[in-house]
Write a structure and sequence with these properties.
Layout: H1 2-11, H2 18-27, E1 37-40, E2 45-47, E3 61-64, H3 67-72, E4 76-77, H4 88-106, H5 114-121, H6 125-136, H7 140-158, H8 162-168, H9 174-185, H10 189-193, E5 200-208, E6 211-217, E7 222-228, H11 231-241, E8 246-248, H12 252-266, H13 282-291, E9 300-301, H14 302-308, H15 315-324, E10 336-337, H16 350-358
Parallel strand pairs: 2-4, 5-8, 9-10
Antiparallel strand pairs: 1-2, 1-3, 5-6, 6-7
Helix pairs in contact: 4-6, 4-7, 5-6, 7-8, 13-15, 14-15
Length: 362
């Protein structure tokens, strides 16, 4: 019975129950904005969960899945929190998403410059650059570089040669390519192109409160922990990454590793550390090792991590190493935030990062 109840709890979406919604309202939780709305019988209005108006009595509160539901029930929008207007965070996210689409459509070699992106967003260069970085966690230039890196990874798997792959990815010289290849791929290009040939890797996909979770391990230890919404997509991406490896499903012993990874999500600090098989450049490994030293309930900025590894000017490189971390939660890159305390970017989605940080022991 206890396991069945836990399974139901883990599979339930956030704010699915009235108790979780009421808790969000009492805490004025901005993360719940858009997930639901609440109306107050005594005033006849409906609000966002984060509304700063005087708290209503619980018996006067009803919950609604959408603005339309609240208005069909006869309630009008609150003039204080304006639930019928776009959420500022959503509007900002939409502006950054449009800029990302513009960069992707033009390609990393012809990507619009900061001036053009800012003009399209109706903002100054300074304010747009700051907005983009606060939402995406990286600068527009770094985003374009990440697209080039993605193109390179795909090209190495599909092109007839390494040379063809790096020219298709937008590198105009072999020297420039090989100078950056280790940082981008975490290994030599030909080794990456081999797709993990000869490696024996087990993997399985389970469920946790943050969605689907994929766990993979070699004989040495866990080499991947991925989070997502679509289990099939997680499996496809993993299989594409190690196309030539000998992949196998889980077994009874492997199930313990999966349970350990889920435990790091649900109750960090209550279980033992997972054995890890980390693969990356020497710089990445130094960063990941430092991330594992961040204590439960604590965070560090990218600049702090750079200083701790003796590279105070390598803040951007630290951010790239965090983004390259393939072992979610076990290497807690979610504990690295921006200097102003904002969460910044996260490989598996900023909302998951916020959820992990909200768990005081995470």
């Amino acid at each position: 019975m206890a396991m069945a109840a836990l399974k139901t709890q883990l599979e339930a979406p956030p704010y699915a129950s009235e108790s979780s919604r009421w808790l969000a309202v009492t805490r004025r939780d901005k993360r719940a904005d858009g997930a639901f709305y609440y109306s107050v019988k005594s005033t006849g209005v409906y609000c966002r969960p984060s509304c700063a108006s005087r708290p209503a009595r619980r018996e006067n509160v009803r919950f609604h899945a959408s603005r339309a539901d609240a208005e069909r029930a006869g309630f009008r929008p609150c003039k204080r929190c304006r639930p019928d207007a776009a959420v500022p965070e959503a509007r900002n996210a939409a502006l950054v998403a449009e800029a990302c689409r513009a960069i992707a459509q033009a390609g990393p070699d012809n990507a619009p410059d900061l001036e053009a992106l800012a003009k399209a967003a109706g903002m100054s260069r300074f304010h747009f650059h700051r907005l983009f970085k606060s939402v995406a966690g990286i600068t527009p230039r770094a985003y374009a570089a990440s697209l080039r890196a993605d193109r390179l990874r795909r090209g190495l798997s599909q092109s007839r040669s390494v040379t063809e792959a790096f020219y298709d990815a937008g590198f105009n010289s072999s020297g420039r390519f090989y100078a950056q290849a280790g940082d981008i791929l975490g290994m030599a290009p030909r080794e990456f192109r081999a797709g993990g040939k000869g490696a024996a890797i087990r993997f399985a996909i389970g469920r946790c409160s943050l969605g689907a979770i994929l766990v993979a391990a070699t004989a040495k230890g866990v080499c991947a922990v991925s989070l997502g919404d679509d289990p099939d997509k997680l499996a496809r991406e993993f299989q594409d990454r190690f196309a030539n490896a000998a992949l196998a499903g889980d077994d009874r012993d492997f199930a313990k590793l999966v349970a350990g990874a889920v435990g790091l999500v649900e109750a960090p600090g209550t279980g033992s550390e997972l054995p890890l098989d980390l693969r990356g450049t020497a710089f990445q490994l130094r960063v990941w090792q430092e991330l594992r030293r961040i204590k439960l309930g604590k965070t560090a900025s990218y600049g702090e991590i750079a200083r701790r590894i003796g590279k105070p000017k390598a803040v951007r490189a630290v951010a790239r190493a965090c983004a390259a971390n393939a072992v979610a939660v076990a290497v807690p890159c979610h504990r690295v935030v921006q200097k102003n305390g904002d969460p910044g970017g996260y490989r598996w989605g900023v909302e998951r990062k916020r959820a992990l940080l909200a768990r005081k022991r995470g």
